Structure formats: C-alpha cells, structure tokens
C-alpha cells in the first residue's frame, strides 16, 4: 500500500451550534491529487485548518506523514504548504517583500526562491505595487506563491482559483499538474468550480454536514454514469414520442434543459440521425454527455434529480 500523507480516524469537531466534523475517516496517499467536494459549511475548511494545527479536534486522531505525536506533527507541518481561506498578506508590502517575510518565517535560505515562485504564479511583473492594491485574483496568486515557498511535499489549498479569470484558472491548474506529476507533490484541494476540479483530481472525497459520505477515484467517476445522447429540437415532446415508438425504448425522456435524452448504449447513431431527418424533426443540437462531477455530487446528497 502507498504511504499515507494524511490520515484521519473518527475525527470530530463540535461547536455549541453543532458538529463541524462528525466521525470523519479519510486517507490521502502520497502522490494523490484529492478533490474535496462539499457545500459551504460542510466541514472542508475545518478539516484543512486541523491539518494546519489551527483547529484542534474534539475527538479522533490525525496523522501526517505517519506521525501522530504532538511534537512530530509540528515537524511534519513544515513539509506542508497551505492556502486556507484568504491568504494572509501584508497590504503595505509588495509581492517580493511579502515573500521575503515568509522566507524568514519558514527558514527558506534560497535567495532566488521568491522570484522563482512569482514566475510560477504569473506575478513576475507585479513590481513595487503593494498587496493592498491587488485584485482578488492577484492576492490568490500571491497566496499560492507563499504556499510553494518551502517546496512542500503536501499542498493544502482551499478555493485556490477563487477570483481568477478563466486564463488564470488554467494557469494555476497547469502549475498544480506540474507539481503533482513531475515533482510528486500530494495535493488536497477544494473548489466550487467542480468542472475544473474534475480536470485535475484523481480522487474525490464528498463531505456533507460534517460527514465524509463517499470517496471515489476519477476512474470510478467515469464509470459511474451512462453516456447519454442529448438532442435539442423545437418539438421535443413529439420527437420523443416518435423515437419511443420507432426504437421501441421506454428510457427516452426530456431533461430539465428541454433536451431529448436517451442512453448511448445500444443506439446506432447513424440510424438515429436518419430517422430524425426522415421524420422531419428540426435538429438544433446533438451531443454526447460525459460523467459529471457536479451532477454526481448533487445526486449523492439528494439534490440532483432531473
């Protein structure tokens, strides 16, 4: 079995208002890119703050790189880079000055490391501009740069692409892919942009109301749902009834988007298209769906009915 970078057993955190985490069992192995999925308040940030030692559990155990003892956990956390909630930056300092401060905190002695991580996150040209004048996206980039300073073996990232434009999101994904695939960095990452998370993670954990309700691999996600044929037409009801009769199938339906939807298995696409054309059905769109992380999560928590 691959070595565990992080393990939790029976982990709970109780506040007067209730449980933020409730008997959570979780394992992240070396080399994993683990996508952490859950609604606001589900417990994602609480767990990440526990990994960082900011929040202490009410019950249960936590291990980092196989270490559980308090003193050993402190040492293990030096191998982790964190971006949890908003990055902690000094608004009166520019990017290099902020990174210089954190280099002293982390004991980073490589004088070129600050410039290196700024290049990695696309902030090389930030110059003397103060962090207090940064956009939200620039602050997120600088926060990621801080997390990378100590060349971490494990990255814990809470909404790292928050505030980034589409090009910035792609750049950050490429950085994380490079860290994972070329340098073997283990990553725990949460994001509300589930389509983006699906492009990056190889394993997913779904948390709901403080409980880890499911873990699956990217391969299992791909196998979890049928590939569906979706047909957009101006007359979906009539066309769907015609297809049910002609194809002798009862699994043809109209989805919430108003598209005709039927499973791909057992359907000859050429015959289907010919049938639609012969019957004069106006076709505005025709596509095949792929298993979708967002839909899987919504189905899992009971909010994804079509």
From TrEMBL:
It comes from the Bacteria. GO terms for molecular function: ATP binding. Residues 6-234 form the ABC transporter domain. InterPro entries: AAA+_ATPase, ABC_transporter-like_ATP-bd, ABC_transporter-like_CS, P-loop_NTPase. Pfam families: ABC_tran. Transmembrane segments: none annotated. Keywords: ATP-binding, Nucleotide-binding, Transport. Gene3D superfamilies: P-loop containing nucleotide triphosphate hydrolases. PROSITE patterns: ABC_TRANSPORTER_1, ABC_TRANSPORTER_2. PANTHER family: ABC TRANSPORTER, ATP-BINDING PROTEIN. Belongs to the ABC transporter superfamily. This is ATP-binding cassette domain-containing protein. It comes from Paenibacillus tritici.
